Amino acid sequence: MAKRKKTAKSLWSKDEVKQLKKLYPNKRTQEIAERLGRSFKSVQMKASKMGLRKSKRHLKSLRRA
Hints:
By secondary structure, the protein is mainly alpha-helical. It has one domain. The protein has helices spanning 14-23, 29-36, 40-50, 56-64.
């Protein structure tokens, strides 16, 4: 039987959560992940659990690019 890959779950600090709330609506998720030193998926999952959404203005700017 194959062994499962162990992943270390690191808890989010209050400062990281605060930054995520501030940045998520108007920044690309990959950029936030790089700033926080976390994976794209972990940022995406945390934002989803917190109920954060991208702003309409940000989504509109992505469609133009």
